[in-house]
Amino acid sequence: MKMNYTTEQRRQLAEANIKAAFDHLEELMDHPEKVSDIPDGAIALPSTGDKWVDQENEKIAQHWSEKENRPVHRLSRQNFLSSTYPFSPS
């Protein structure tokens, strides 16, 4: 899969994905039972709140899902953010 992102696009992808991943990890630390919601071997795809990043993540996840014959499990931002995070994503 060829990815021709500009430096700014790579930065946008990295920042949004890192933030979403840490938000999800924080939620899992508070609610470890939620780990069982993710199917074994699935590609966990958190929503970042950034429409463009989410679209690109979807393309990447779909590519790897097909290549590795693994399901994609979409994590809704609303479902994993707790009241600890009252801000809205930019």
How does this structure look, described?
The longest helix has 24 residues. The chain is flat and about 40 Å long. The C terminus is likely disordered. By secondary structure, the protein is mainly α. It contains three helices and two strands, in the order αβαβα. It has a two-stranded parallel ribbon with strand order 1-2.
In summary, what is this structure?
This protein has 90 residues and is mainly alpha-helical. The chain has three helices and two strands, in the order αβαβα.
Topology:
Layout: H1 7-30, E1 43-46, H2 51-68, E2 72-75, H3 77-80
Parallel strand pairs: 1-2
Rounded to the nearest angstrom, the radius of gyration is 14 Å
How far apart the termini lie comes to 28 Å
Main β sheet profile: 2 strands, parallel
Q: What is the succession of H and E elements?
A: HEHEH
- How many separate helices? 3
Unreliable sequence segments: 80-90
Query: Mean pLDDT, rounded to whole units?
Result: 84
Give helix % range: 40-55%
Number of strands: 2
Q: What fraction of the residues are assigned to beta strands by DSSP?
A: 5-15%
Q: What is the SS-derived class? A: mainly alpha
How are the strands of the largest sheet arranged?
1-2
> What is the overall shape?
flat
Which key terms come to mind for this protein?
single chain; 90 residues; mainly alpha; two-stranded parallel sheet; 3 helices; 2 strands; disordered C terminus
